[in-house]
């Protein structure tokens, strides 16, 4: 397995994720404009966060950490991987059906536990109603995640990465149709979520079949392999979902402030763009790659894969973090301020964007460092680290809320992200040379930081000069594009000159991508 395949896979996943996130921005812009910060948007955010939270536990969290390494190693050794996947599919389906049924019954309890500040006003009942519609999404998207893991482990990334595009296409279409017909936009949005889950599952199921990876439901059985999967998946569910849990704690704090849930949600959408395109893409590609290399005892290849993943991640993430801090207000103003989203909403959301931006490199590096553990089927250490990080998040969010208000939720999330990275780095002691970044990584990291600093200065200068254009309705989009282009040119130009990266490496990977 050549190192270039890692970058090619990241570009494939990242490209589809970028398209999904662009459509997601279109969705969120429509929500901000047609619904606007307030009771209905707060209820939508809280209702949709419930299945998304459980998705992190039962899908990306548990199954990327437990299922993918086990399946990858069986695939490498030709030890009946599809039989193992079919048993896992059936067991997961059974658990999710029970969970969905219980959640429908006890939904008021779940809403109170995740947004207690809503209790006693109109938002609470509205959130309960919305959540009962959206929660079945967890069943469809978790099964889709398992099949995506099968595809990713076999080196087929495109279909699984394209599936989230369907979610945003369907939600945007639902809102457009409702708006054109004069119907309730929020209700159309909510009912589109389970429909999108069905579409995503259908897409990856068909892709797996076409690839000859026929995974079918079988009678659930408790086998030694399933016992091992559960033993690894239970702590992985928490370790992989630590960011989501921290966001949930933030929602609990924010629910006590009017419109704060909506502000944090809008800010979350901005920093999730680079996190999804870079961090999640790297994690998806790196985990099966490391698992196969460790099975083949390719220590040098594993170290190279880890180092290049870290290098790619930080080369693309650090400049994004600088941009989110330096031009947070122009970004929020141009992208969101319209209709029901006013200047006060812009100021509050921009503050949250800047705070989340400070934590962006940490959120991405978690995706790089966790596969070191997961590829060894070690989820206990990340589980312990996650507990520490969540404790830090809870103490900071609740404690600081009395001093700095709703923004305490974002500060706590960022602080917990950096604590998690420090623990993951510290926990590698005794694991071997393949868990250490190589000389090339250490050579390029400070240069990446310098190039990002240069870019930050350019962004600040251009934003100051073009302040009037950024606030002029007819020019604001062109002005923002000019600002972003100036930042990109300055970063890649400076980075190439000082040796932060070599653009020829990206060009070579693009040629190999097809």
Task: Describe this structure as you would to a colleague.
With 514 residues, the protein is mostly helical. It folds into 2 domains: 3-437, no CATH class; 444-514. 83% of the residues lie in helices and 0% in strands. It has 20 helices and no strands. α11 runs parallel beside α14. The radius of gyration is 22 Å and the shape is globular. The two termini are 16 Å apart. The model has no long low-confidence stretch (mean pLDDT 81).
Q: Summarize model confidence as the mean pLDDT.
A: 81
Ends: how far apart? 16 Å
The major beta sheet can be summarized as: none
Order of helices and strands: HHHHHHHHHHHHHHHHHHHH
> What structural class results from the helix and strand content?
mainly alpha
- Share of helix among residues? over 70%
Structural topology:
Elements: H1 3-34, H2 39-77, H3 81-105, H4 107-114, H5 122-134, H6 137-153, H7 158-180, H8 185-210, H9 224-240, H10 242-254, H11 260-295, H12 299-326, H13 328-336, H14 343-374, H15 380-404, H16 408-426, H17 439-465, H18 467-470, H19 476-498, H20 503-513
Helix pairs in contact: 1-7, 1-11, 1-20, 2-3, 2-5, 2-6, 2-9, 2-10, 2-11, 3-6, 4-5, 5-8, 6-8, 7-8, 9-15, 10-15, 10-16, 11-12, 11-14, 12-14, 12-17, 13-14, 14-16, 15-16, 17-19
